[in-house]
Amino acid sequence: MSQGTSQGTSQGTSTEIRRKQLRWRCWHRGTREMDLLVGGFADRHIESLDSAQLERLESLLRAPDPDLYGWIIGRDVPPPEYDTDIMKMMRDFKFTPQSG
């Protein structure tokens, strides 16, 4: 019984670490515009993404910034392998600057 609990905790910790790593990658894209778009998206949605969605987000993050930016703003149509629920969520996301 404790083995199942330990495994569940390990899985939870692994997912938490994965989310933290993905959030960091989203906020460190290379351009301020992409940091704000993708990082803001991660701040808003990453905690609610399941494992399969996290995998699709990881896949999107491997795409070059100019391509990803074009897909997000709707200038370009993403290839089918990138045209997922996560891409739709990114397109629908509206970045709102936080007043400091």
TrEMBL record:
<comment type="similarity">
    <text>Belongs to the SdhE FAD assembly factor family.</text>
</comment>
<keyword id="KW-0143">Chaperone</keyword>
<dbReference type="InterPro" id="IPR005631">
    <property type="entry name" value="SDH"/>
</dbReference>
<protein>
    <recommendedName>
        <fullName>FAD assembly factor SdhE</fullName>
    </recommendedName>
</protein>
<dbReference type="Pfam" id="PF03937">
    <property type="entry name" value="Sdh5"/>
</dbReference>
<dbReference type="InterPro" id="IPR036714">
    <property type="entry name" value="SDH_sf"/>
</dbReference>
